[in-house]
Each structure stands twice: as structure tokens, then as C-alpha cells.
Amino acid sequence: MSTIDTAEDISRLAFGYMASKALFSALHLDLFGRLKDNPKTAEELAADTGTRVEALRTLLTALSVSGLVTFEDNTYANVPAADIFLVSDQPHYFGDYLRYQIDRQMFPVMEHLNDVLDGEYDREFFADYEGLMGDEEEAKLFSDSQHAGSTGPARTLNRRVDLSAAKTLLDVGGGSGAFAITLCQENPNLSATVLDFPNVASTAQRFIDGAGLTDRVTFQGGNALEETWPENQGAVLMSYLLAGVGGDRIEELVSGAFRVLAGGGVLMVHDFIMDDERDGPYLTALWQLQHLVFTPGAMSLTPSEIVPHMEAAGFTGIEVSELIPGMTKLIVGRKPA
Fold first, then answer.
1. What is the C-alpha separation between 294 and 132, in angstroms, rounded?
2. Which of 59, 92, 217, 310 has its CA 20 to 30 A from that of 51?
3. Which strand (E) or helix (H) includes residue 172?
4. 281 upstream amide cis, omega within 30 of 0
């Protein structure tokens, strides 16, 4: 964990949001796609994007000093990571997740952090997760962008947890169905139910239909904290769920998973979870701030605040591991046979 030692260090931290906006604007203009295998001058990129050249040069300079592009011989080129993750036709692209969910939906939320800390946050001006998902357009945007950022982690989860014996999966708060779809694709004997807010249904169904899994993946609309869950499940997944609810609801969700699991079934909790020492990961600590704004009762989670609830519910053989490096953890427990 690095420390802040100088005024320049403090300024670099304070100005960090400007680098974020530079990245989002570059995605808006598809600069990384335009530079893929094809370095260009500012003039060429301005002509491609219809942007005023001096304005674009200012953006490109910020991208260059931030390490996203290189500048040599008056031309700009992508760094390797930009080619891999920020070009839309590449398999590991997650630019839409950054451009839409983080920039459009999450970035404005952080304006209200002071209000939450002062206890003066008015839900009339910005909704919680249920309110956000109650807006059909915002729900579609949230789910589309979340889907783009979840398929890769879902494949990693599949490599970590053996689901070959499971016949059914309940994906609680499963959004677009990215995890359920991926896990069903990797496990031919598995069928899944995705439980999430009703306005997500059309987006989830579009992805389910596109994957050719209409006979194996179904969507159940409802608030996971209020809806009746289907029983006799071989596996229950809670991905990005616990960090987004009030801390007093974690026990309820974990015990609910134990109740609907068949003997030998597995609970998988995947989320932004801090180390027990609370000294990292850095990105996890930052991400949990937006959970706080959406849900003022939400907790900055650690394994020591989740595992005891799982043990109390009756889960055994609980294991904690990192899933997305530097960001998320996976906690797995099993219901005794």
C-alpha cells in the first residue's frame, strides 16, 4: 500500500477524476478502436471523429501522460492493454462497462457522497438500486454494460468451482444473466434461474436468446429480498449482491441460500471484498464508496464479515480466494449432504 508523501501526490489523487473522464471520452469517440494497428496523428483522428483538432490534441495529451496511448513521431498509438481491453471487437473488451455504467451511471452518484456522510441524502434526487432499476432505460443500460464486464469473471469462476454435479443454479441478483449463461455454456447439464428486478427481464432475455439457452435459463422478476426463491437448487450464486445491500440483510440472504439449496449444494459469493486487514485492495476500497451512496446502510465487506454468517447458516468447507485480481473475491461454501 503506497503512502502520500508530497503535495504533488495529493494533487495527483485529487485530479484523478480528470484522467477517468479522459478515458471515458476516448471510449465515446472510439479512439482506441481507431488506433488499433493503425497509429495516427491528431489531425487524422480529428478528421475521423469530426472533433476540433486542438480539443482532441488536449485529450490525447491527457491519455498519453496517463499511459493509455503513446506519442512518437507526431503520431499516437495504443498501448498493449488498450488494444486488448478497450477495442470493441476484441474478446476481452469491457469499454462499454466503463463508458456506460461507470461514467454515465456511477460517476454522477459520487457527487452525493458528502450528503450520505452528513446524513442528508434525499432519495428524491437520486434513487437507490431498486429505484435505478425501476427506470426501464436505466435498467437496460445498467444490465447491458454489466454484462460486458461479467462474462470474463464468470469464466474464471467456472474454472474455480466444480459444478459438474449441479443440475440447477439460482443466480440471485443476476442482472443480465452473464454468470448464469456462461456457467450453463460451460456445464451442459446445468439449468439456471436468474432472479432480479423486473425491468431487467427484457435485457436478460435478449442475452439468453442470443446464447441459445431459452430452454435452460429462465428469468424470475422480483426483489431478491422480498421474492420467494425456487428451492432444491444445486448451486446458488450471489455476484455483486452483498456489497450493494444493507449490512443487516447479509445474514438473511446467506440463510436464504442455505434454505433453498439441496444437500451437497454450493453457495458462491462473488463481490468487491476487502482484505481482513483493510489495507487493500485499492480498487475494492474505491468501488465500495459508490455502494455506500446507493445504499447508505451498505458495509465495506471483508471475509471476516461474511464467513461467520455462512458458518452460522450451516455451510462447511468455506474457502476464500481472489477472483478479479486486485478487485473481487470469491467465497465458496457447501451445504452438508
1. 9
2. 92
3. strand 168-172
4. yes
State the pTM of this model.
0.82
- Contact of 97 with 145, CB cutoff 8 Å: yes
- Kindly give the confidence (pLDDT) of every residue in the chain, 337 residues in length, as a single tens digit, with 9 standing for 90 and above: 578 999 999 999 999 999 999 999 999 999 999 999 999 999 999 999 999 999 999 999 999 999 999 999 999 999 999 999 999 999 888 898 898 888 887 888 888 889 888 887 665 555 555 555 555 666 566 666 666 667 889 999 999 999 999 999 999 999 889 999 999 999 999 999 999 988 788 888 999 999 999 999 999 999 888 999 999 999 999 999 998 887 789 999 999 999 999 999 999 999 999 999 999 999 999 988 887 887 777 778 999 999 999 999 999 999 999 999 999 999 999 999 9
Q: What are phi and psi of 56, to 5 degrees?
A: -70, -35
- How far is it, in rounded angstroms, from Cα 297 to Cα 119? 11
- CATH match for 7-87 among 1.10.10.10, 1.20.1250.20, 3.90.226.10, 3.30.230.10: 1.10.10.10
